[in-house]
Amino acid sequence: MTEYEAVIGLEVHAQIHTAAKMFCACPVLEDTGDLIPNISICPICTAQPGALPTINRRAVELALMTGLALNCTIPPFNRFARKSYFYPDLPKGYQISQYALPMAVDGGLEIETGQGRRRIGIRDVHLEEDTGKLAHVDGASLVDFNRAGVPLIEVVSQPDLRSAEEVVAYATHLRLIFVYLGINSGDMEKGVMRFEASVSVRPRGSDALNPRHEIKNLNSFRALARAVAYEIAWQTEVLERGGTVAQQTMGWDERTGRTTVQRSKEHAHDYRYFPEPDLPSLEVSREWVVQLARRLPELPAARRARFMAAYRLPSYDADVLVADKAAADTYERVLAHAPADPKIVANWVTGILFRLAKEAGRPVDALPVAPAALADVIAWVERGTITLATGREVLAEMVATGQSAAQIVAARGLAQMSDVESLRQVVEQVVAEHPAQAAEYLAGKQTVRDWLMGQVMRATRGRADPQMVRALLAEALESRHG
Ligand code: ZN
Ligand code: MN
Q1: pLDDT per residue over 68-81, tens digit each?
Q2: Cα–Cα distance list, 221 to 94, 391, 406 (Å)
Q3: Under 8 Å CB-to-CB from 262, ≥6 apart: which residues?
Q4: What are the tens digits of pLDDT across the range 350-404?
């Protein structure tokens, strides 16, 4: 039986959170879901007759840097183009995009998959503007132009992806690069990234490119993975039955878990692309490219490799840290105070700190915990000044109150009880309060000892050194025997 393989290309749109929109001075407002409509608009982004666009230099720089980060070639000049189509949230009746002469071309991005490392080709990186938004209320359609003209970077891959798993690995890596470049927050729920996948299926080993289904407007990794997997399965079944797949534009229905036909046969010429006459072509000097390359931050793949080499972190820890830029930054700031072994510090950051950040609904680096303070807490636990449980409590208290670690430890008397005499008193009191359990222990029931230990730890609010408690408890119980 013929084996089939999928051929998948991905177009990724990422909002650029510049101060101003792409072609006017209106501020880019973050989509918080409750913004008042049409408060960031002007004659340019609402397409009043005679209004002329100007190019946002910062958006161009970020698009060029994205090209460099994706190992692309930067052509010496690029040009904006009109992409004509009618939609009520597109006030000009066309979108200013780029077509024949994009910002960057011919790059590649390495992804890690279950089958190892693969390089996915990048066809081009270009700049364009976002559309407005429609809302359908009580039989009326309302339009909000706050988003109209927000700069978008579009990254177009070659059809090199072969599975839903690879598609997600690629999109995830791309998202991280955007975050590291400071293009946007990476917050998918705020719609800062959107995907379009074109999927076709062919006999394995063939190099034919069959007509493809383009799945529009996928707004989450989950939707992306499900829609691609659905299309691969559906098209494979059609081919196995001897059928053919027609080139079509599909929509994804989250509820039914199926794609549905939106339009048939859509081609580039349908958009009547032509050079934007209101904007000059952009010259990109070699000096500018060199300057931008120097300004590139350390990218996720390089940082991951460095974390593994310099800090001897297992790949899992390196992945988890690098995937959250704020956490990786915090991690390195804590390490700068050298409180402990890098792996132990990684455990603190990816363990309790992640949990506290999640509970607070804030990024790790926005918690009121100074890296030096976290380093102190870790060092105290490592030195045995406080127990691990107390260390975690102190950290939670710091997040809740904004107080320093030293203040909390002093105010609550949390330093570990390592004074033998006071600890002996607590142990003896616990044994005296539980004569039945003490007798059971002496009759040979070892598990009761752990229960009694728990009582002591509770009485000392976790401050006691467990080893010392174990010894004192044995002593106290044996002395009863004697
Ligand atoms: Zn405007
Ligand atoms: Mn586009």
Answers
A1: 999 999 999 999 99
A2: 29, 36, 43
A3: 216, 248, 249, 250, 251
A4: 999 999 999 999 889 899 998 988 998 998 888 877 889 889 998 999 898 888 8
In angstroms, what is the span from residue 252 Cα to ligand 2's centroid?
18
Q: How far apart are the first and last CA of the chain?
A: 81
CA–centroid distance, 95 to ligand 2, in Å, is: 9
pTM for this prediction: 0.84
Question: Measured between alpha carbons, how far is 46 from 429 in angstroms, rounded to an integer?
Answer: 78
- State the Cα angle at 440 between 437 and 444, rounded to 5°: 140
Ligand nearest to the CA of 131: 2
Q: How far is the CA of 155 from the centre of ligand 2 (A)?
A: 9
Cβ atoms of 109 and 312 within 8 Å: the answer is: no
Tell how far the Cα of 141 is from the centroid of ligand 2, in angstroms: 24
Which residue is listed with tokens 């510049």?
18
* Cα–Cα dist 200/203, whole Å: 11
CA 20 to centroid of ligand 1, rounded, Å: 8
User: Residue 115 forms beta bridges with which residues?
Assistant: none
